[in-house]
Specification:
alpha+beta
C-alpha cells in the first residue's frame, strides 16, 4: 500500500509539473509502532539511537559501500538478555521504488570481497553478516564480532544488529530471531 501511495503521489506531482513529496506518514518520520517493541525484546523498552550511534551499520557500509538516501529512517537500541546481555540496534529506512532491493544486492556482493566483513547466510530478501573489529583492551588483543540480519520488504530496509556486550561478541541467532518481528512491525509502513 505504501509503495502504491508513493507512486500515486509521484505521478500526480509529475502531472502537475512539480516534485513529489513523501507521503505524510513517511514525511513525519518512522513511528514508534513500526519499530521493535518491549514485547519483542523481553520486556526492554528500546530507546532512540543517537545521531552518530551505530553509524557504520545505518546501513552497513563494508568497503565504502554507500546506501541510497532514505525518505525516512530511524534507529533504536536496547540492551537485552540476562546474565550475558547483548546491545542490539534496529534500523528501519523507507526508500523510493526498488532502492532497498538494489542496495541489498550490492551489499551481498560487497560482503563477499571485503576484509573484516563476511556473509554468514543469505536468501533472496535477507542477509546475515558478521563485522569483525580488533582492538586492545586492558593489555590484551580483542577480536570482536558484530552480527546483523538485514532484509527488505518492498521499499523498506530493516536491519537488526547485535554487538554483544563490552568485549564479548554478538550472536547471529539473536538478529535472525528479532528480524521476524522487526519486519512485521515495519510492514505497517506499507
Amino acid at each position: 500500500m505504501f509503495v502504491f501511495r508513493l507512486f500515486l503521489a509521484t505521478a500526480l506531482a509529475v502531472l502537475a509539473g512539480g516534485v513529489a513529496a513523501a507521503p505524510p506518514a513517511v514525511a513525519a518520520g518512522i513511528p514508534g509502532t513500526a519499530m521493535l517493541q518491549p514485547a519483542d525484546l523481553g520486556g526492554v523498552k528500546p530507546l532512540d539511537a543517537g545521531r552518530d550511534d551505530w553509524l557504520r551499520l545505518r546501513p552497513p557500509r563494508p568497503c565504502g559501500l554507500t546506501g541510497p538516501a532514505p525518505l525516512a529512517d530511524r534507529a533504536v537500541t536496547a540492551v537485552v538478555g540476562g546474565s550475558r546481555p547483548d546491545a542490539v540496534m534496529e534500523y528501519v529506512a523507507v526508500h523510493r521504488g526498488d532502492a532497498a532491493a538494489r542496495y541489498l544486492r550490492k551489499l551481498r556482493k560487497s560482503l563477499n570481497g571485503c576484509r573484516d566483513w563476511r556473509l554468514e547466510r543469505a536468501s533472496a530478501d535477507r542477509l546475515t553478516f558478521r563485522w569483525t573489529r580488533h582492538w586492545e583492551h586492558v593489555g590484551e588483543q580483542v577480536t570482536h564480532h558484530t552480527y546483523g540480519t538485514i532484509a527488505h520488504a518492498g521499499g523498506t530496509l530493516v536491519l537488526v544488529a547485535d554487538s554483544g556486550w563490552e568485549t564479548s561478541s554478538g550472536n547471529p541467532a539473536t538478529t535472525e530471531r528479532l528480524i521476524i518481528p522487526a519486519l512485521r512491525r515495519a510492514a505497517t509502513l506499507h
